[in-house]
Amino acid sequence: MSQLQTLLFRIGGVLMIIGAALPLFVPAIAPYVYTLGALLFCPIQMLDRYEGSNPVTRRLRRQQLFGSFALLVAGALMFFSLYHIPPFRGREWQIALIIGAIFEIVPAFRMKEDK
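The chain above was modelled as a monomer; its predicted structure follows.
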């Protein structure tokens, strides 16, 4: 990753954390902050490639890609919740966020152990 990609990746991660906490304080802007962070974080995560042949790391990388997709879905569901768009009117975004976070964090620790 280039330095710019690394910077955008980190800014996106911070914005997602802030955006996930904002519904407690300012729910009207939370989806915008979170989704901006997800749009910075997830494409860079998806473009990062693993060229090795280790099957465990390849599987963990696929899990991370699924996690990135779930984080993007969480952003969309936040807008559904904010604007009460059927059929998602509640807090479904929290479930997608938890699934995405688990599928991002666990493989990251496991891949670190493999190196």
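The helical segments are 3-21, 30-47, 55-82, 92-114.
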